[in-house]
Amino acid sequence: MAKNLFVIAILSVSLVACESAVEPTKDDQAKTEKKQEKKKEKEVIKIAVEANRVLTMDLDGMVCSMGCGGSIRKGLNATGAVADCDFDFENDRVTNVATIQFDKDKITADEIVKIVSEINDGQFAVGKTSSEEFVSESKVNEVGTSSSRPSHAKIKVLSNTSFRVPNIFDLFSGLLSF
User: Fold this and answer.
1) To pair with 117 at 20 to 30 A between CA atoms, which of 12, 23, 52, 68?
2) Structure pTM?
């Protein structure tokens, strides 16, 4: 008897839940459209920037490369003068390093330092900075020869630690030999 009541209760709840679905009204649709328009307005259009200068700065106050780095990138990309921003970040290290490629004709290194210092209500303290001329690989290829100016190509370092999956046949043969 209790089992039947339980089944009836479950069926009743599921029927009521299905019937209570409300179709969106015109006001709801208008609100959704306004939210989508606002979201589109907030999206920053990435402008192609031809970097001709690279700024390296020591940064204190970074707690992660994703959130903090994302905040810095967002602030610098809004200028329309920064081509790339990379971080040498390690957990528990007080001072991390940011490398920023930018167009010196659109923004100065001092302006970049000021922007980074003001992000997240002054979360980041900028330490030692250095700025030098930057020649992209595309410019070197256009000229046909490399110049004496430094080129800062991105280098990805892959970890030499690896994991190798053992051969299952070797495992079984090892078990059978006992």
Assistant:
1) 52
2) 0.53
Number of other residues whose CB lies within 10 A of the CB of residue 5: 9
How far is 145 from 137, CA to CA, in rounded Å?
11
> Is pLDDT above 70 for 69?
yes
What are the tens digits of pLDDT across the range 135-158?
Answer: 766 555 454 444 444 555 554 444
Q: Which residue is listed with tokens 């006001």?
A: 27
For the domain with range 53-143, which CATH number is right: 3.40.250.10, 3.10.580.10, 3.30.70.100, 2.20.28.10? 3.30.70.100
Stretch (H or E) spanning 39:
helix 26-42
Handedness of CA 21, 25, 29, 34 (dihedral sign): negative
Q: Three-state SS for 114? A: helix
Q: Residue 47's closest CA among 107, 113, 110? A: 107
Give every strand in the sheet of 95-102, ordered side by side. Answer: 82-88, 95-102, 53-60, 125-133
Label residue 43 by pLDDT band (50, 70, 90): low
